[in-house]
Amino acid sequence: MDRFYNSEWIFVNGVGGEVTDRYFDYKTVLNAPDGKGTIYISANSQYAVYVNGIFVNCGQYDDYEHYQVFDTVELSDYLEKGDNELLICQYVCGKNTSTRSVQIPGIIFSVWNGEEELLSSNTEILSGENHRYLPNGELITGQLGFNFSYDANGEETVFSKSVSAGKQKNLFPRPVRKLIISDLYEGKICAQGVFLENDATLRKSQRMQTAFLSARRREDMCEGDSFSWNTDERCDGVYLIADLGGETNGLLTFSVDVPQETEILIGYGEHLDDLRVRSYVGSRNFCFRYVAKAGHNEFMHPFQRLGLRYLQLHIYSKSGTVNFVGVHKTDYPINYLPIPVKDGLHKRIWEVGRKTLHMCMHEHYEDCPWREQSQYAMDSRVQILCGYYAFGEYEFPRSVLYLMHHALREDGLIELCAPGKVPVNIPSFTAVYVREVLEYTEFSGDLSLAEEIFDTLRTIVDGFIARIDDSGLIPLFCGKSAWNFYEWQPGLSGNGRHETAVYESPLCAFVSDALRCFSKICEKICPDSADYYLKQSRQLADNAHKAFYDEKTGGYITRLGDEKPLHQLTQAMMLFSDAVPQENILSVENMLKSSELIECSVSMTIYAYEALLRISDDNREYVLSEIERIWGRMLSLGADTFWETEKGADDFDYAGSLCHGWSAVPIYIFSHYNLKK
Known about the structure:
Helix content: 25-40%
Structural class: alpha+beta
Largest sheet: 11 strands, mixed
CATH architecture of the largest domain: Alpha/alpha barrel
Radius of gyration: 27 Å
Shape: globular
Strand content: 25-35%
C-alpha cells in the first residue's frame, strides 16, 4: 500500500534567502483513538520526531531527489488515547558535501494505525523556522557539513500554515534497518580545571583549542559527588573532559545548571594527545556552541551523529553544576559471527577490527565516524568483504552498492562519495565498484543486484574502454576535478593535476580488473558480451606489462618515465590483475616483498596480501608476520579501533583518524584464506 497517497511534500512558508544550515519545526495534533500509530517520514536533510514533548526517533537516510528514502517509526509507546502533540524538527544542510547533496528542502509524512490513516502532511500543517539555532556558517569538515550554535534564551518558533515544497514523490522504503538509539551513555569526567580565554574573536573551535587551561583536583573545585563548582579564581570559567571509555558513535547530550545566561563550548575528539580535545585542526572545527539560560538546561542535538571518545566542555560561569554529559549511542543492529581464530594476538586483532567495522556502519558504510562519515567505493570494498565474515549478512552491502549505482555521473564515473556531491573524483575507485558488485554476487549468490544495475556497470566499463588510446593504455584523467589517487603514499596520492596524457600502471591494472570482473558478470546476465570484455581486459593487461615492466630489476615502474620500481602497490596491482606473465611472477613477487620499495599503506595491504596468497602458500607466514607487525603495533599503542594509517592521529597534519573502516583488512585475510594459527 502507498502510505503517501494523501501526503504531499511541504515546507515552511515565507522562508527568505538561501536555505543553508537552517532549522525548522512542524507541529500538529495527532488523534490516536487507540493510542497506537506508525509514522512514515522522509525529510531533506534530517528530521527528529517528538510526541507530547518526548523524543521518539531521528536519522534520515541521506538520498537523492530521484531516490527519496522514507523511514517507518513506531509511535505507539509514546501516544496517549485521543489527541497528542506531534512535533517534527527538520534540519536543512543546503550544501553539497561528501555525505549529502543539495535537494529541494521539505518533509513528507503520514501516520497510520494498521490500514487506517490518521494523519498526512499537507499545507494545513503549522510550521516555522527555529531561530534558537543561530546563524553559523562554520563547517565541521567539508565532508560532514556544518557545526551548530544554539541559544536556549531565543524566542520560540512562530508557526503558520505550510506551503507545498514543489517536490515530486519518488519514495522508497529504507533499504537497511534503523539505528538503535540508546538511552544516555554518560561520559566519565577524567580531567577538570579552570580556563582563560586567549582570543574571543576566533571561531569557537579555535577558542577552545587555544584557551589556557589550569588543571584542578576534583575535590579542590567540586562540592560533594556531583560536578558542582563555585570559584572566585581569576578565570573565564571551568572546563571538564569526559571519557566515553573507547571509540563511540552517538548524539550529543548534556545537562547543566547555571545561575545566569552562560556560554558553553562543546568540543569532541578521539584522543587527548594535546592534553585536551583537538577541537581545531586546520580548517576543521570539532566544536559546538550552546548558550544556556539561567537555571536548568538539558539538551540533545539529534541532527548530527558524532564519532568520538572524548567530550570537552568550556563553561563560562564561575559556579554551576554539570548533571551529565555524554551521548545517545547510535548503533546499527547487527549480529556478530563467532571469531574463527584462536591465537591471542590474532583474536584481539579480529575483535578490534570488528569494532572498527561496526563503528563505520550506519546508513551505509563510511570511511570514519569522526572526520568524514563518507562512503567511498574503494573503502567500502574492504568493509564489505570483511563484513561478510564478521557479520554474515548481505542486506547492508547490497544497499551500499545500490546507493552508489544512483551516483553515476554523465561522464561514466561514480561520484566520489555517495550520496554526496564533491568537486573531485577518483577514477580508480569507480573501477573498484565493478569488482565490488561481482564479489557481492559471488558471496551472496544473489544475481538480482547485478541485473538491476547492469546498465550502470556497462556504462562504466564502456567509458573506460573508450579512453584507451593508441598506446593501448588508459591515460590518467585530466583536469582540475581528476584526482588520480591510489593510496596515501608518495607518488600514489594523486596530488598533481594533468592536462596532457600521463600513463600509470596502477590505473591500467584497476581498469583491467574491472573489465575482467564485468566479463564474469556478463557470463551470468549477458553471455554474448562476456568474451568481448575479457578480451579488452587481457589486451590492457598485456599492454601494461609491456609498457611498465623493468627488465633490469624484474619489477614494475609506476609511471612511464620512472627510472626504477618505487612502490609495493604497483607490484601488487599488476599481480592482482593477472597482468604478469608466468615467467615474471617470481621476480615481481620478490619485488613486492622488498623492503626497498615504498610499502603499501594500511588500506591497500588487502591487494598485496591477496596477490601473494594467490601465488603460493609459502607466502602465508610472510603475510601473517606483516599483519602482526602492523596491527599488533597499533594495539600496543592502545588502539581501541584501527587507524587510518600507521601514523595515527599525527598523520594529515594532525588530522589522522583513529577509526577507519578500511583498516579491518585482517578479518578478510584471516577467514578467506584460512590464515590461522
